[in-house]
Structures are given as structure tokens and as C-alpha cells.
Specification:
- By secondary structure, the protein is an alpha+beta fold.
- It contains twelve helices and 22 strands.
- The strands form four sheets. An eight-stranded mixed sheet has the order 2-1-3-8-5-9-7-6. Strands 11, 12, 13, 14, 16, 17, 20 and 22 form an eight-stranded antiparallel sheet that branches. It has a four-stranded antiparallel sheet with strand order 15-21-18-19, with no helix packed on it.
- A hairpin with a 5-residue loop joins β11 (257-258) and β12.
């Protein structure tokens, strides 16, 4: 790939040491030596929006606001620099071994934006360009890795209305590049006329949404990288990074939504927790379908990831007192929990859904970890209710056993990651 400049959007460690790690990752991509790059530390606004910005129709976390604004800053830099062939990377990128030599389409093929990590290619509406590239027709873009062909494209992105109708940047990129999108009301807000192409196979990836074959190229099971999420030596600092602070402080009546029929929803974890949990699971790569006899899921137990003790600490400090509060639970049996915690992964090719069943639990907690999929959600037929939160890190909580028979609806594109906890009282291990 002929790249004039690479911009890395850094939401992590802004220090020199943190930037050095990003440069080391970039060097593994084998770009031409004189390829310029710039690390842009993400703008972290203390609260709300800066002057001149206004939210669009979607609810956004502060992290999503900060990311979207920073992407706009990068597009402004591209226009100022006058660069044509540029690449924008999020700091959690991973390169496959072939990224630098991946051929671009013929010069006769028009493209403005090239999506480098699209993997949900089961859609029959895809239009083949050549052996390497397609014109995607439906929603599937993330903000992880993409290229702009001309500086004029950056101008188009800037003029597309994102500033005054701010939405998550992955939604914006999808809305302006795909002819068909599930959220048509979003697409109708933005009409910059951008032509997109996407790789048939991911050339840039993250352990957040990975193809199994790419994992094999990029991660050795013998050398699992360090994951900050596993370091709880400073518990208060860990909570600041990974938990919704209002919920952690017990402001339940403010933050918890009663969806009816004894089903509750609340913001529990930050996007940082979700990204790192998925990355950890994919790096370990110990998925199995052998744990459940009747309703098996493609999953991995949190103890296998080294995350169980930390996760149980969250359940004990937040979910146990919350449950006592919500259901007016009494008795010493609720003084402690016995939990089975695991991460499940749904794909269109291996396991897209889970049949209707009852959980062997007193309470069941489900955490949404990503949004790079279509379909899915937890369906309760008795109550005619589908639980499919929009925001990553959102938790749903409902009784197990006999009252809340449910199943996982099929996903139609991408991969869906969730953490599930089967919670039992302490005297029922």
C-alpha cells in the first residue's frame, strides 16, 4: 500500500513511553521506511461538548464524543497537510503480516474511503471489485482502520454535518459510505457522496473483532501481551478506568432503567473495559463449546482469562447490593454470591444464536461488549421483550430459573461478544 502519512488516534497512555509502544506496533506493519506518521492524543473533554458542537439523535458516552471530535481534528490535519493517500488508525490496531503489501484496486476504480478491517462479509449484496476488494452495501464499518484517497475526501467528511449532528464516528462512516443501512434515519442526515471500498479479508485488525486466521498470524499463545485490565493493585484507580462511576457509587435509582417484568438495565462498564476484555479473550484463544450439555455456547470462562477475581469483586461491590435493593432481598443467603462467569462469542458461521432455555441461576447478568454486529439480543417470549442495548458496557439483569425463559436471537453480520454471569446465593454453590 502506498501511504503518504499515517495518523494514529491515541486514547491510551499519552506519555513518551505510551507513544513508543504505538510506534513499535506500527513498525511491525512493514510500511516503507520514509512513511510519515503522527500520533494524535485523543481530546478528553471534562464534560459535554466544546463550543460549536451539537449532538445528533443518538445518545453518546463521553468517550464516543471525544473519539468523534478527535477524528474530525485528524481530517482537518489531513486537509492542512495536503496529503492524499493517508491511513487513520485507532490505537488498538493490529497489523496482519501482509498489510503493507496489500494491493490497491486499479486506478480506474473510484474510491474515497477504504475500510481495512471489515470482516462481516456474509452479505449477498457485496459487489466484487477484484480478488482483494469489494464494495460493501450494508452497515459494518468501525473506526479502527481506514484510508482516505484524497485530501478532498477529508473535506467531504468535514462538510458532512458531523460537527452539528454529532454521532459515534463508526456510525457516521457507515452512514456516508453504504447505500443501505439499518438506521436509515441516521443515513438521511448525512449526504456527502463518498465512495467506499472494503477488504475481503481484514488487513488491519484488533482483538475486538478478529478473524481466527488473522489471530494466528498476529498473536502467539506463548507470548500473551500485558493487559492493563488485569492490574487491580490500585482498586480505586481500576474503577475509575473501567466502571461507570455513578453506578459504582450506588446511584441506582438515577442510573438503572426498569424495563418491566423484572428486567433491569444499567451502564456498568466503560468501553475501555469492553475492548480490553475482548482482546484478552481473543489473545488467550481458549474458546470451547463443550461446557454446557443442553444449550452450549461458544465461550471461555473468566477464570481462564485471569479476570474472574476482578469481575467477582465488581459483582460483590455493585451487583449484589443493587440486586438486594431492586428486589428487596432478605436473609443471610444474600451476604455473598456464587458466580459462574464466562464470555460468549456469536458469529454468523459458528454459532449465531442460542435456543430458548432457562438459566440455572437465581439472577443472570449479561454485559454487551461490542457493537460491530447486526441482529442479536436476548429475547423473552413470555414478555414479548427483546433486550439489545445500544451502548457497549451496558448490563441487563433478570431472574433465572423458571420465570424468564429466553434465548439469543441470531446475529446477521459481524461478531457479538457478551459476558454472562449465572449468579446464585452464597449457600447454593
Amino acid at each position: 500500500m502506498e501511504i503518504e502519512k499515517i495518523y494514529i488516534i491515541n486514547s491510551g497512555d499519552p506519555s513518551e513511553a505510551g507513544q513508543t509502544k504505538l510506534i513499535e506496533k506500527l513498525n511491525q506493519c512493514n510500511f516503507v521506511e520514509d512513511t510519515g506518521f503522527e500520533i494524535v492524543n485523543i481530546n478528553k473533554f471534562a464534560k459535554g461538548l466544546p463550543d460549536g458542537y451539537a449532538l445528533g439523535p443518538l445518545e453518546m458516552t463521553q468517550e464516543e464524543i471525544d473519539e468523534a471530535i478527535t477524528h474530525r481534528m485528524v481530517w482537518e490535519k489531513i486537509v492542512f497537510d495536503g496529503k492524499d493517500r493517508v491511513m487513520i488508525l485507532r490505537d488498538d490496531f493490529l497489523c496482519t503480516t501482509s498489510v503493507a503489501n496489500y494491493p490497491l484496486p486499479e486506478d480506474t476504480v473510484r474510491w474515497d474511503v477504504a475500510i481495512l478491517n471489515r470482516t462481516d462479509l456474509t452479505d449477498n449484496t457485496l459487489i466484487n471489485i477484484d480478488d482483494n476488494w469489494v464494495r460493501p452495501q450494508t452497515f459494518g464499518t468501525t473506526s479502527l482502520a481506514y484510508m482516505l484517497n484524497k485530501s478532498t475526501t477529508a473535506n467531504l467528511l468535514l462538510s458532512g454535518g458531523l460537527k452539528t449532528k454529532l454521532i459515534p464516528v463508526n456510525q457516521y462512516l457507515s452512514a456516508i459510505t453504504y447505500p443501505y443501512i439499518i438506521q436509515k434515519e441516521i443515513q438521511d442526515l448525512f449526504r456527502p457522496g463518498v465512495e467506499a471500498i472494503a477488504t475481503k479479508n481484514p488487513r488491519m485488525t484488533t482483538n475486538q473483532i478478529n478473524d481466527v486466521n488473522v489471530i494466528a498470524e498476529t498473536v502467539s499463545t506463548d507470548t500473551i501481551p500485558y493487559f492493563e485490565i488485569l492490574d487491580d493493585s490500585d482498586w480505586e484507580a481500576w474503577k475509575l478506568k473501567y466502571l461507570n462511576l455513578s453506578v459504582a457509587k450506588g446511584e441506582w435509582d438515577l442510573m438503572v432503567d426498569d424495563l418491566g417484568d423484572n428486567i433491569y438495565e444499567l451502564p456498568l462498564f466503560t468501553p475501555k473495559f469492553c475492548k480490553e476484555a475482548i482482546a484478552l479473550a481473543e489473545a488467550k484463544d481458549e474458546w470451547t463449546i463443550d461446557r454446557h450439555e443442553f444449550y452450549p455456547t461458544n465461550d471461555v470462562l473468566l477464570p481462564e482469562l485471569g479476570l474472574n477475581d476482578i469481575y467477582n469483586r465488581v459483582l460483590d461491590e455493585v451487583i449484589r447490593p443493587l440486586s438486594i435493593h431492586l428486589w428487596n432481598l432478605e436473609g443471610s443467603s444474600w451476604d455473598s454470591f456464587s458466580n459462574e462467569n464466562f464470555m460468549a462469542r456469536y458469529t454468523t458461521t459458528r454459532q449465531s444464536h442460542l435456543s430458548l432455555h432457562h438459566d440455572r441461576s437465581h439472577l443472570t447478568l449479561v454485559i454487551k461488549l461490542n457493537d460491530e454486529f447486526s441482529g442479536g439480543g436476548t429475547w423473552f417470549p413470555k414478555y414479548q421483550k427483546l433486550i439489545n442495548p445500544e451502548v457497549v458496557g451496558t448490563a441487563s439483569l433478570h431472574p433465572g430459573m423458571v420465570t424468564h425463559r429466553h434465548g439469543a436471537r441470531p446475529i446477521t453480520m459481524g461478531k457479538r461478544y457478551i459476558i454472562v454471569s449465572f449468579i446464585r446465593t452464597g449457600d447454593n454453590p
